[in-house]
Amino acid sequence: MSVSELRERPDAVVDPESGGQPPLTGEDRLRLLRLMLMMRLSEERALNLYKQGKIPGSFYDGCGQEAISVGAAFALAPEDRLCILHRDLGAHFVRGLTPDRYLANYMGRSGGPTGGKDGNMHFGDPGLGCVGMVSMLPDMALVASGLALAFKLRGERRVAMTFFGEGSTANGQWHEAMNLAGIQRLPVVFMLENNQFAYSTPNELEFAVDPVKRARTYGFGGLSVDGNDVEAVFAAAAEAVERAREGEGPTLIECRTMRMHGHGAHDDMSYVPEEMLAEWRDRDPIERWSERLAGEFSVPPKRIKELREEVRAEVDECAERALASPMPDPAIATEGVFANEWRPLGNGQAPWSRWKQREAGAAEDQDGAAA
Amino acid sequence: MTLGTKDQTQPIPGREAEEMGQVSPEVARMSSYLEAISDALRHEMRRDETVFCLGQDIGGFGGAFKVTDGFFEEFGAARVLDTPLAENAIIGTAVGAAIEGMKPVCEMQFADFISCGFDQLVNVAAKMHYRQGIAVPMVVRLPSGGGFSGGPFHSQNPEAWFMQAPGLKVVAPATPADAKGLLISAIRDPNPVCFLEHKGLYRAVRGEVPEGEHTVPIGEARVVRPGEEMTVITYGSALHLALRAADEIDASIEVIDLRTLVPLDREAIVASARKTGKVLIAHEATGGAGIGAEVASLISEHAFEHLDAPVRRLTAPDVPIPFSPPLERAVLPQFEDMKEACDELLSY
Amino acid sequence: MSSSATSVETATAVVMPQMGVSVAEGTIAGWLVAAGDEVVADQPICEVTTDKIDIEIPAPAAGVLSEILIQEGETVGVGTPLATIGGSSPPATPAGEEAPEPLDEATDPPEIDRSAFFSPVVRRMADEHDLDLSRIEGHGVGGRIRKRDLLTHLGGRSRPLHSDSPYRPDPEPVSDPDPGPAAAPGPDDLLGPVRREPLDPMRKAIATHMVESRRTAAHCTTVVEADFSAVARERSATKEEFARRGVPLTYLAFVARATVEALGEFPVLNASFDADREEIIHHEDVNLGIAVAVEDGLLVPVIRKAQRLSLEGLAAAISDLAQRAREGRLDPDDLHGGTFTITNPGQFGAVIATPIIHQPQVAILDLEAIVRRAVVVEAEDGTESIGIRPLSYLCMSWDHRALDGAISARFLARVRERLESWGVRS
């Protein structure tokens, strides 16, 4: 598509109201809760391991931001691709990673996706269609754009998604990514997590113009959603993913949220007013979603409680497995600098019922054809 | 008694030696270094649909140096992708596309501008496979080198920067045949490869280049000219100075073209140092902590007992490349410098 | 004295500009002014085309365009003077042309006595060969003993100092058959004094190529005898005319012409053999290699598209290549791309030879000395008598992998026929 054609509709904006009721089934809603719980409880467990000295280096989590990575990744099809960042553990779980591998990676053990070569949240499981982040932000916005470029060049109906914080929008590479994605109308969805602080720097010292407004100046849509509402995040992401899949270009989705822990475990957050934390604590995404499920969708509170216990047991079991995973053999430290061959990324899981139905349909077609 | 012929691959005394091909002329044609690079790119793009180029002004305009001249017409805008002025975007999107199975060939308009895309190159591309086991098959073409009053920002030879970023392969061909063969190999390599193409060789150097399929293995140096009394280990533009010096000096000088800087052909370096006992390492890039330093340390580690003289370097001094012609000449190694360095080492 | 007076006397050079960092040369597309024209500064005076851009060159100074040095269509390197504007004095050297000031640091350090300093390799070799270094004369800087001095001292009999791979231990020295204290004199001793001369690169290259060619090609040699009477007549008739035009007309030129024509009829000989791909490569052009003896070896410069050249054209090309080969002025291009080679050692009196094929070509033709011999000649009425004729053997080595004896014989017969009928049909 030519640049001039693109410029004819620079203000294509996703309207979160227009999407109507997203087609989430009751199962989907419980899955969302389960995934958010898995992120919360895994990170709690990891923080404990960190405090017990089982995790070297530093520790970062996404406490309070669970709705974003879970809700956004939930919209993706198996063949879509993800660059996941450090507050987005939920997206890994959506794609099928199990907590033991996450914990093993944090502990520098061989069972982690990087086998000890990189730590904490710097991982992605290539077999699940995920590319791990680097510390420089927002480098992965460009890598995700590149994945999307490959889809576009090959004419595939696939989408790339990545995450970054509002702090990243100040970096030059953010501009390079937005600009290129806009020019080339790439099938990429940018999930912006505005968690109020870049380490200790508040929004007003990060930018003079809101990043969502800036998205429009790059020639594509931007919108803001409540980042603590998993359904709102999902709805916005699902629509953006669909637009991208249809060749309508990128979308920037700002999810307003709050980082409820320090930048890392070493950060006491002394710069955050207590009232501010209290206010956001009342909007905890997991509590809110649980309440909605119980109220609006009539899920028995007992079921929600059971779910929580199931997840806790699963995380405990995973922690045991991670602790049992051996430390890496020092001999591998000098191995793998160069690749001998290229191998494709694998497809991730896509728990949204829509994709499950598609798979079921495809299987049926195949059965029919076979018969 | 009748000698029907003479081997064509040997330099002729008093001749420029860059014409030496390693190929039989019947399947080759004379090309400039620049044409050889275009030829390699075109060959790979015709052969493999996943190969595409991206960079500034490479489309309809054909590139600042015209390497991709005519590509836009043949392959279309999608595969000869004009990007905005954003080096990190060029490298970063190439990384993503490579992970997804494309084979991007990035063009930096000048090698110097890799500094603006350095983060994506050294932090994302270089470390990807080590950290995650994900291969990144991509090439970054880097028009490098001075000698044209390009000044401090259009003349650099930044290869040593890349040597400090494990995970990048680095090649620096000096002849048209190697330029073609190494570019094709680089495109097919599953790793990020920095392809340093010296601007001074683009149109000044011609040589036989095999038509069609031609690869030169990455990681293999070439003994361009065997000799006994001393060795010049070199690459890129300095190779041509070395060959001329070897022609003019009445001594048996071995000349080795490294061709690949990462991974270095350690065996070739050490074997030659052991053989001649006297080594001059010559390159246009600045000397401090450069390729010459690496090669010298390799020799002292593995060939010490075979040395008959201190290992010497002929490089640019550690200064930015100045603009004014006499200043630039004072900084970049010249033929006279090469000759003098060889003479000194031979008489040691 | 005003400065303008000076500037009138000093000529200004118009030079080929550098239109981009990688541009090394440009071609004059046309002159917009003529020699003798008055030009004003910055007036476009000529058009230049490079492979990147076409431009007009503005006059660098005002004055009369006194001389055009480079004509339309010519291609010259960046910085080459194209024309001169004004002045009677020679043009000032452009600033960029000045030789760089020599660097100060070039002053040599005072010579230090290094006769007692031994480099690592010298120490090692002295140990290995049990040498007393104090008794060896050093020829290095400051009287230093060099590795080369030791090698000379050892008479080249030391074992190799290196092995192929640095990561393997040096191989154990091959145990020379121990001559023993009372051993009988070996064959070497019977040779008497010798002088060992290392092969120069050209010699080495020739050696390698020849052995390789003999190893790969199935060499066969076919010989025909040709009567050069017709050629001799033609040559004496036209030699002086050619000479006036600066072209020495040799017998070789006739043979070259006849060969090129015959190759047109027998393209299988204008070919290369590609054993790896099991293919014969046929060439459209006849790129004729001419072996030229030079001081210390042999070169084979190539006449490109020889099929387009007349006898005179070939004669001129042969003369030019031979001269430049002997003077070391061949372009590297001149040595590549041959499709068939002619060698002519006969000029030194040899009468027969079996040349080695220039790989990967499939044949090489050897013109030997033209000698007057008594032969049976047949008159037009069929009577036979003994006559004196200038004859020579045409010896051709050919590769039996690519062709067979019948073809080579027919080809040579065709060459002979052409030579013997010179002047009859043309």
Notes on the structure:
The complex is a heterotrimer of chains A (371), B (348) and C (426). Chain A is of the alpha/beta class. Chain A has helices spanning 3-7, 26-51, 66-73, 89-95, 99-106, 139-154, 172-184, 211-217, 230-245, 274-281, 285-295, 301-324, 353-370; strands at residues 81-84, 130-132, 160-165, 188-194, 197-198, 201-202, 221-226, 251-256. In chain A, helix 2 (26-51) runs parallel beside helix 5 (99-106) and helix 6 packs parallel to helix 7. Chain A starts with a helix and ends with a helix. In chain B, helix 3 packs parallel to helix 4, helix 8 crosses helix 12 and helix 9 packs across helix 10. Chain B is 36% helix and 20% strand. The model of chain B is unreliable at 1-26 (pLDDT under 50). By secondary structure, chain B is α/β, with parallel strands linked by helices. Chain B has 12 helices and 14 strands. Chain C is α+β, with helices and mostly antiparallel strands and 426 residues long. Helices cover 26% and strands 23% of the residues of chain C. Chain C has helices spanning 3-9, 120-129, 147-154, 187-191, 201-216, 229-244, 251-265, 311-326, 405-420; strands spanning 12-15, 25-31, 38-39, 44-49, 54-58, 63-68, 75-77, 81-85, 219-227, 271-274, 279-282, 288-290, 292-294, 297-299, 302-303, 340-343, 363-367, 371-378, 384-399. In chain C, strands 9, 12, 15, 16, 17, 18 and 19 form a 7-stranded mixed β-sheet that branches. Chain C has a 4-stranded antiparallel β-sheet with strand order 1-8-6-3, with no helix packed on it. A 4-stranded antiparallel β-sheet of chain C has the order 5-4-2-7, with no helix packed on it. In chain C, 34% of the residues are buried.
Please give the alpha-carbon distance between the first and last residues of chain A.
Answer: 42 Å
User: Could you name the ranges of chain A where pLDDT drops below 50 across 5 or more consecutive residues?
Assistant: 1-21
Given the C-alpha coordinates, what overall shape of chain C results? flat
Strand content of chain C is 15-25%
Total E-strand runs of chain C: 19
Radius of gyration computed on alpha carbons of chain A? 20 Å
* Overall mean pLDDT of chain A: 91
User: What is the 3D shape of chain A?
Assistant: globular
Number of strands of chain A: 8
**Which structural class do you get from the secondary structure elements of chain A?**
alpha/beta
Oligomer: heterotrimer
- What is the percent of helical residues of chain C? 25-40%
> What summary fits the major beta sheet of chain C?
7 strands, mixed
Along the chain, the helix and strand elements of chain A come as HHHEHHEHEHEEEHEHEHHHH
What is the spatial order of strands in the main beta sheet of chain A? 2-1-3-4-8-7
Distance between the termini of chain C: 72 Å
Largest interface: pair, residues per side: B-C, 69 and 80 residues
Weakly predicted, low-confidence segments of chain C: 1-8, 92-108, 157-183
